[in-house]
Write a structure and sequence with these properties.
alpha+beta, Aminopeptidase, two-stranded antiparallel ribbon, 4 helices, 9 strands
Amino acid sequence: MIQPLSELNDGLLALIQGYTTHSIYVVEKAEQEEQTTITLHLTPLEAVREKRFDPPDEDLAGHYQEVVAKGFSFAAYDDAQPVAMVLAEAQQWNRSLWVWEFHVAPSHRGQGIGRQLMDTLAESAKAAGLRVIVCETQSTNVPAIRFYRSVGFAVEGIDLLYYTNEDMEPGREVAVFMKRRLE
């Protein structure tokens, strides 16, 4: 069952875990006077890569509570247990909905819960007159990129310095921005 969020709790924050991947997107940039290209090349890994996210600190959890209060955050429950959540915030200046967090418990992935949650978010955004949903993920998070594509998102931007000034170095992550058009 999907419900609008009215507040965050430890059960919801515990959904922010991480991911496992067998491949990554290697990002390359070629800049010349006549043309600049940035490419993402899906590359298999020799060993499985696990990425674990740190729990939000007090400041970030406070910010997320403010985001929830704005009315575009939802959670999916199995009985009373939260199994997925999306925290999103409208940007009225460009009629976009920014996704801050989207997570599905590993035990509930592949069951359509994430798709239902994203569809609920899209319906809410459309009803509010928004034109696009925006999310950011890492070039190393291939499972997220595949999921977002499966629910109507497309890669719309790359930021080569979003996390650090060394994002393009081997083994690092590059920010991938994806959007789902609503109109």
